[in-house]
Amino acid sequence: xxxxxxxxxxxxxxxxxxxxxxxxxxxxxxxxxxxxxxxxxxxxxxxxxxxxxxxxxxxxxxxxxxxxxxxxxxxxxxxxxxxxxxxxxxxxxxxxxxxxxxxxxxxxxxxxxxxxxxxxxxxxxxxxxxxxxxxxxxxxxxxxxxxxxxxxxxxxxxxxxxxxxxxxxxxxxxxxxxxxxxxxxxxxxxxxxxxxxxxxxxxxxxxxxxxxxxxxxxxxxxxxxxxxxxxxxxxxxxxxxxx
Amino acid sequence: xxxxxxxxxxxxxxxxxxxxxxxxxxxxxxxxxxxxxxxxxxxxxxxxxxxxxxxxxxxxxxxxxxxxxxxxxxxxxxxxxxxxxxxxxxxxxxxxxxxxxxxxxxxxxxxxxxxxxxxxxxxxxxxxxxxxxxxxxxxxxxxxxxxxxxxxxxxxxxxxxxxxxxxxxxxxxxxxxxxxxxxxxxxxxxxxxxxxxxxxxxxxxxxxxxxxxxxxxxx
Lengths: 243, 219
What we know:
heterodimer, A: alpha+beta, seven-stranded mixed beta sheet, 3 helices, about 25% helix, B: alpha+beta, 10 strands, elongated
């Protein structure tokens, strides 16, 4: 074993101290990459009645149906999925559903899917997730499962009624629009029935599964601070040893 | 007295003729899909007999390699559309259609209202092709039973018929505009002709009984 390594092995040697500090920084980075990413679930279990009128678009009974997210300080979204629980409708392609995030981003979860002929469905559990293997079916019946957010056409011929934000007719069918945003605040689900007759409900409401990571800015600041502290400590140690 | 009875007879005949006049024309309704004046496809409904309607769908002028994908029509809402019987009676270009009918059960594409009858075709319904159906199954069926609007839908004016054209980039939705025609019907026309001949015969008799050199009394 060389002399240098023998010195580094001594607990109070400056090189050992520096290595220890670097180890702590590396551990922090590892936490950032894995351990700090966490998934939280929030829900609103109030049923949403999907009514019908002779003058569509007809808004859901809760318009919007809201979920308030809090406590995820210094976190940003890395992945989001939405679950509609107890989905029933006699003509599902009548429905258009958008999600509005606290930052104003919009995502079309489903629009004009589930068959251009009558395919009634009852009590489905639909999870919308960008990472799903398949889109919701456009020409056939819906079934429970996990699907990509899906819309039949890029735009609707109408805007969602107020208080839905402007731009609803062309909201992208992707939940990635929320990635990197602050999850805290009010999330709103807007449900409309665009065609008469037919009706339905989402009997057990909806939920969000939010995966977060520390906000990039906060982590970098923390790493910088740790690095500075380590440098100062090393500089002091060297100075003490020299004197 | 004789003059009066003749007058009554003639008036009765004329009234019968007037009443029979509408029946002397079989209705037809043509739905034109696409640009006004130069439709890309047409659907002609014709009264062809008692409780029987003939439908002829023509791909008149589709752009490029586009094909007729589907057509939707409405039906008298007071009647069960499921009772309709469609029999394909002719085809040009080997077109085979699949027909379904049920009240308020079909959309032509995203955002449309609901229709009662849906024709879907494969990908081989090209310009110049046509298909003909005989429609039966409902008492007192006539072309007027197909003149109803789709159900209301957001951001769209309800139409009488709609179709979808398969383009390279996706489906193009087009509305069908109805144009109602009245065309002479053979059996009714002969009936009316018979009434007219009878009226002429009565007039001739009146001329015959009138004193020679004198015009008959004014009717």
